[in-house]
Amino acid sequence: MDSYLINKVPKETLVQLEEFSAYLKDHRKSKTSYESVIKTINVLKELICASDWVTAGELIKIIKTYSKYLPLILSNETVVSNVIRRVLKIIREENEGPDATSFSEGLAIFFRSDSKSSTIGRKDLQDNILNSIVELLAEQENSKSNIITMALEHIHANELILTYGHSNTVREFLLHGRKKRNFRVVVCESGPSLIGHKMAKELSDGGIETTLIADSAAFAIIHAVNKVIIGTHTIMADGALRAPNGAHQITLAAQHFSVPVIVCAALYKLSPTHLCSYDQDAFNKIIGPENMLNFSNTKLHSKVLVSNPEFDYVPSDLIELFITNTGGHAPSYLYRIVSELYHPHDNDLDNMCVEESDDDSDKT
User: Fold this and answer.
1) Which terminus of the chain faces fewer neighbouring Cβ atoms within 10 Å, N or C?
2) How far apart are CA 248 and CA 311, in angstroms?
3) pLDDT digit string (tens) for 173-199?
């Protein structure tokens, strides 16, 4: 750990931080994005309460310093970095207070120091931050229920819906719609993981007439589909997706036949970053090819290099609508939501503002 963190954070809390890092690194454990979000919020609450800080600038520096130890983790678990940014925005807002209302004062808040903008004491500031984090936690806990209650607005009787992969949110969305609508669902098997088999079984067990098809058959059947409903790993700031591998071909086929594509995802998956398909090192995650190849032919495998990307880049122009816990939004509107959720200083968590980095030196 960084010497700054060692001096600012008690040993017991450092142990919790390391355990949280190990939890994120352990890919053997099956964990949902929602579970990672809740654990992240609880860890940050502990860090805020236990660490040694006086000003908001110091607290922001502590959190950002800790986030630097998670670069590889955050690149794959984007919901973790998104929650960290949400908490940093809360700290800035509680430090600034509700007084700056004019246009000029608003611009000053946008650019000014975090550590010198308020004279509020630590106890009051910490209480305000923790109260806001409790509200943030409640928002995340209610996110899925808020999404699935909109199912009846988007699912109509006798429709044929296509989905891809396995998403808990999409599954609950479709099952909620089944309570008052009769419709059919086609599930692509989502090779090479074949996670679509699990999705098809869960929908069938829920009373939905479900058909499982090979991924290669999607183009042949999608002309008869009324809409495509999928989940995603990450929503980029411009409305593009970091979706499960194979989602791009489904959305391209849907565009060809003018079939609307709807994405169901909570806003904790909305990232302020912009990543592109050609930047695979930053965008994608290459996993082992063991689920694609039979390793009995060792002579052949020694002569080939197999790339097995986990994600697909889906451009925003292939998406019709995002259904989130705050309602339905067009891809072009997401920039507005990003500006409401995150502070521009925190888009790059590795970037430390001059005021934050100099906060301790000003007191000496």
Assistant:
1) C
2) 9
3) 999 999 999 999 999 999 888 899 999
CA 54, CA 363: separation in Å to the nearest integer? 11
Kindly report, residue by residue over 127-171, the tens digit of the pLDDT. Answer: 999 999 999 999 999 999 999 999 999 999 999 999 999 999 999
CB within 8 A of 138, min separation 6: which ones?
Answer: none
DSSP 137-150: HHHHHTHHHHHHTT
CB 40 within 8 A of CB 84: yes
CB neighbour burial string for 171-190, b if at least 16 within 10 angstroms, e if fewer:
bbbbbbbbeebebebbbbbb
> Scanning the structure block, which residue is given the tokens 């960084």?
2
Structure tokens at 82: 């998104």
Residue 71 has pLDDT above 80, yes or no: no
Sheet of 160-164, strands arranged across: 209-213, 184-188, 160-164, 227-230, 261-264, 321-324, 327-329
Amino acid at the residue 70: L
Residue 210: enclosing H or E segment and its boundaries?
strand 209-213
DSSP E strands, 44-191: 160-164, 184-188
Structure tokens at 235: 């929503």
What is the token pair recorded at 278? 């050609």
- Identify which of 269, 350, 295, 351 has the alpha carbon closest to the alpha carbon of residue 69: 350
Are 63 and 44 within 8 A, CB to CB? yes
Dihedral sign from CA coordinates of 47, 26, 6, 90 = negative
For 308-357, write each residue's pLDDT tens digit. Answer: 777 888 999 999 999 999 999 999 999 999 999 999 988 887 766 544 55
